[in-house]
What does this fold into?
Amino acid sequence: MKRAAMLLLTLLASPGAFAACEVRIEVGDNLEYSKDVLTVDAGCDTVTVNMAHTGQLPANAMGHDWVLSETGDARAVVDAGSDAGFDNDYQKAGDKRIIAATPIIGGGESTSVSFSLEGLDPSQSYTFFCTFPGHYPAMKGTFEIE
Ligand code: ZN
It folds into this structure.
């Protein structure tokens, strides 16, 4: 009983940390994520990224995905993905540099990906980006683990 009460107090005292295990981002009919930085709590067992495409164009014309890698790997992941083609979400199968990735979605669709932070280093630089051809220069942001 006492332990349960303390757990409840802990949860009430840190709503921010609790919420930071799940983040939301939006994309549309342009080359832009709604956020430049996503921050998650280093204490999260699992992180979930929810992405909604609020535009109207189909995935093969203005599709977007959300892919996470170390910042130094991002460009190479995009280049490898462009050869993989639309049917493979412009992501190279088995690419070990990809930490997490959603499929490519079009207007009106939503997607999400959940992954563990195990093995990730908060002092390392991570970047999220879109692998749809031509989108990477504009569609990328910083993924922070605090
Ligand atoms: Zn895109």
About this structure: The CA atoms of residues 22 and 97 lie 22 Å apart. Strands lie at 22-27, 37-40, 46-53, 67-70, 100-101, 110-116, 126-129, 140-145.
